[in-house]
């Protein structure tokens, strides 16, 4: 058996042996718009994975990972999807902050934070977007100033995923008074469990609240909890976004594949699969899923060679557009039944929730408009768009 096939078989066997007992009930749970589902059980599952060495598989071994090649990381995520394993709760720490600290953190930061992420003992959230700085990340206004041996932080972040569950937040803050745009920003690691941090859930159109507002009112963190130099936050933050577009996308596709297969089953059950137009859209959705995989693999290959570049924006446009179209396809497969609730307590059905939540896909994590601008200017070398 080829080495990578042996690794794939090892992953498959472990999942088959361990998604049993209480963890059998976690199958298929979680994901975008569904992070409220059995969070405690999914956290226990992920800690069970960590104890067996199945978190952070792409991290170098010296940092607590398995040092898996790109091919093996792909195999891991594909087998995870095929096993219908639950959506991960440690995604932000493992796939965004961890690679950032490995690339840019100090030895002390790596020693302090990476073991806790790998063991799923500390969860993270991402403090980027603000009311006036969403996709325009350079408009950040949250301020931080050195006060003795600590940074003192004031400001507001918004659309912060999983902030209620997070122990720490990596936040982009303006640390140079009078600075503008991408200059004068710093990348700070901030504890969430303190008096100066308030989290307010945002009720979405789906009725769930995985996004939050976060208010910093004199919140503090140690002076050493800055990644890179003061004022170097833009470079660090954009590198983190590159990691988000790469390895993390494969984990995200665990849910995408599951949703697609569910829509296919729905089409067969309702007879919609006999409609040639809907059948064509199902085929196109399957092709799109393969394109997402290839884009993620290409981005991961770039990450393996160093920090990801602006080409990673292609992955964001690809998955956001594909997932939004899948939500529309699901509603068309349902037909008129998709416009009504099934009955008391009149909650959204699975496909209604997918359709409504996916409306945000082309906006959050960097809008498609901004991603196209990045590709045009930084990849294709086209003239910069005039800025007022």
From TrEMBL:
<dbReference type="InterPro" id="IPR037069">
    <property type="entry name" value="AcylCoA_DH/ox_N_sf"/>
</dbReference>
<dbReference type="Pfam" id="PF02770">
    <property type="entry name" value="Acyl-CoA_dh_M"/>
</dbReference>
<dbReference type="InterPro" id="IPR006091">
    <property type="entry name" value="Acyl-CoA_Oxase/DH_mid-dom"/>
</dbReference>
<comment type="similarity">
    <text>Belongs to the acyl-CoA dehydrogenase family.</text>
</comment>
<dbReference type="InterPro" id="IPR046373">
    <property type="entry name" value="Acyl-CoA_Oxase/DH_mid-dom_sf"/>
</dbReference>
<dbReference type="InterPro" id="IPR013786">
    <property type="entry name" value="AcylCoA_DH/ox_N"/>
</dbReference>
<keyword id="KW-0274">FAD</keyword>
<keyword id="KW-0560">Oxidoreductase</keyword>
<protein>
    <submittedName>
        <fullName>Acyl-CoA dehydrogenase</fullName>
    </submittedName>
</protein>
<feature type="domain" description="Acyl-CoA dehydrogenase/oxidase C-terminal">
    <location>
        <begin position="231"/>
        <end position="380"/>
    </location>
</feature>
<keyword id="KW-0285">Flavoprotein</keyword>
<dbReference type="InterPro" id="IPR036250">
    <property type="entry name" value="AcylCo_DH-like_C"/>
</dbReference>
<feature type="domain" description="Acyl-CoA oxidase/dehydrogenase middle">
    <location>
        <begin position="125"/>
        <end position="217"/>
    </location>
</feature>
<feature type="domain" description="Acyl-CoA dehydrogenase/oxidase N-terminal">
    <location>
        <begin position="4"/>
        <end position="119"/>
    </location>
</feature>
<dbReference type="InterPro" id="IPR009100">
    <property type="entry name" value="AcylCoA_DH/oxidase_NM_dom_sf"/>
</dbReference>
<dbReference type="Pfam" id="PF00441">
    <property type="entry name" value="Acyl-CoA_dh_1"/>
</dbReference>
<dbReference type="InterPro" id="IPR052161">
    <property type="entry name" value="Mycobact_Acyl-CoA_DH"/>
</dbReference>
<dbReference type="InterPro" id="IPR009075">
    <property type="entry name" value="AcylCo_DH/oxidase_C"/>
</dbReference>
<dbReference type="Pfam" id="PF02771">
    <property type="entry name" value="Acyl-CoA_dh_N"/>
</dbReference>
């Amino acid at each position: 058996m080829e080495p990578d096939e042996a690794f794939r078989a090892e992953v498959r066997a472990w999942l088959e042996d361990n998604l049993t007992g209480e963890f059998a009930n976690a199958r298929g749970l979680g994901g975008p718009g569904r992070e409220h589902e059995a969070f405690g059980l999914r956290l226990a599952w992920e800690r069970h994975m960590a104890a067996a060495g199945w978190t952070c598989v792409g991290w170098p071994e010296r940092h607590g990972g398995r040092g898996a090649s790109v091919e093996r990381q792909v195999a891991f995520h594909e087998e995870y999807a095929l096993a219908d394993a639950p959506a991960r709760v440690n995604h932000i720490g493992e796939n965004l902050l961890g690679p950032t600290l490995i690339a840019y953190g100090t030895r002390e930061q790596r020693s302090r934070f990476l073991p806790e992420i790998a063991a799923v003992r500390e969860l993270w959230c991402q403090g980027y977007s603000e009311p006036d700085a969403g996709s325009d990340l350079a408009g950040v206004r949250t301020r931080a100033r050195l006060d003795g041996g600590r940074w003192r932080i004031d400001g507001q972040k918004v659309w912060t995923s999983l902030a209620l569950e997070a122990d720490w937040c990596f936040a982009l803050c303006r640390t140079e008074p009078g600075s503008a745009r991408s200059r004068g920003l710093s990348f700070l690691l901030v504890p969430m469990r303190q008096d100066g941090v308030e989290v307010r859930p945002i009720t979405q159109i789906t009725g769930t609240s995985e996004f939050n507002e976060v208010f910093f009112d004199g919140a503090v963190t140690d002076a050493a909890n800055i990644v890179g130099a003061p004022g170097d936050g833009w470079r660090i933050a954009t590198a983190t976004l590159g990691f988000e577009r790469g390895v993390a996308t494969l984990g995200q596709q665990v849910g995408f594949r599951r949703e697609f297969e569910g829509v296919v089953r729905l089409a067969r059950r309702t007879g919609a699969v006999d409609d040639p137009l809907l059948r064509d859209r199902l085929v196109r959705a399957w092709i799109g899923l393969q394109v997402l995989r290839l884009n993620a693999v290409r981005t991961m290959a770039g990450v393996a060679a160093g920090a990801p570049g602006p080409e990673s924006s292609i992955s964001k446009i690809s998955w956001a557009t594909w997932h939004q179209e899948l939500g529309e396809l699901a509603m068309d497969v349902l037909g008129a039944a998709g416009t009504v609730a099934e009955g008391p307590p009149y909650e959204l059905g699975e496909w209604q929730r997918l359709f409504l939540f996916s409306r945000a896909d082309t906006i959050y994590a960097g809008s498609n408009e901004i991603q196209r601008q990045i590709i045009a200017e930084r990849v294709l070398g086209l003239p910069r768009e005039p800025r007022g």
